[in-house]
Design a protein that fits this description.
Elements lengths: L4 E12 L2 E12 L3 E5 L6 H8 L5 E8 L2 E2 L5 H6 L2 E4 L11 H6 L11 H7 L1 H5 L10 H13 L5 E5 L7 H16 L3 E5 L3 H7 L2 E6 L2 E7 L7 H8 L2
Parallel strand pairs: 3-8, 3-9, 6-7, 7-8
Antiparallel strand pairs: 1-2, 1-4, 4-5, 9-10
Bound molecules: adenosine-5'-triphosphate.
Adenosine-5'-triphosphate binds next to strand 2 and helix 1.
Amino acid sequence: AHGGTILDVKNLQAWYGESHILHGMNFNVNAGEVVTLLGRNGAGKTTTLKSIMGMLGKRTGSVRFSDREIIRATSDEIARLGMALCPEERGIFASLDVRENLLLPPVVRPGGLTLDQIFELFPNLKERLKSQGTKLSGGEQQMLAIARILRTGASFLMLDEPTEGLAPVIIQQIGHTIARLKTEGFTILLVEQKFRFASTVADRYYVVEHGKVIDGFSNADLAANQDKLHTYLGV
Ligand code: ATP
């Protein structure tokens, strides 16, 4: 069962310097959902996540999170409201070991997972606790990147292409992790190029093109929209 709207994005526009990248994004996420932003390379999906997280200098429109307007809030303020971004490049510190990486992001709210709860979700991280960031496989790095935001108390997770560059068996594990996080009550906004993967975890989808949402589907209307999806994504 999903709750009410937790994230409501209206006419979100954003710029990198002089480059106008987002041209009026409109979409929403309900509490407890997994929502996926689909779209080709360069459509503006990553920029959308960064803009929501307060990481782009110039942005206009409205982003309401937990009934608060955050379009002008700083990243720190947004993090303290319980939102976290797991970036595409993962951001694992090579010179730190797994434990140090896990403990790095500050706890921003009560309710974060304990290390024991994290190891229950990611048993191989426990085995690798003393391994340096550089020694981890891509899959382990991705798991660590997700694991450490769970410690912070964030309940709204934005995951930017968590499957990128990973082997099919690891992608499947990431899928199980996302499904598990959903049952634990987390809300997830996912950016994903792999439609087939997305369809194993998402409740709803938005298609992004040229910095705008051009369409939206729920799982129930997927079959009826195969042709459109093919046109949008080439899948
Ligand atoms: P991808 O899967 O390639 O990341 P995307 O949909 O996430 O695709 P974005 O990364 O949001 O796309 O990029 C949207 C547009 O913004 C692209 O045209 C890209 O070239 C541009 N862009 C991205 N980062 C920067 C930056 N730091 N400075 C200037 N332009 C940027």
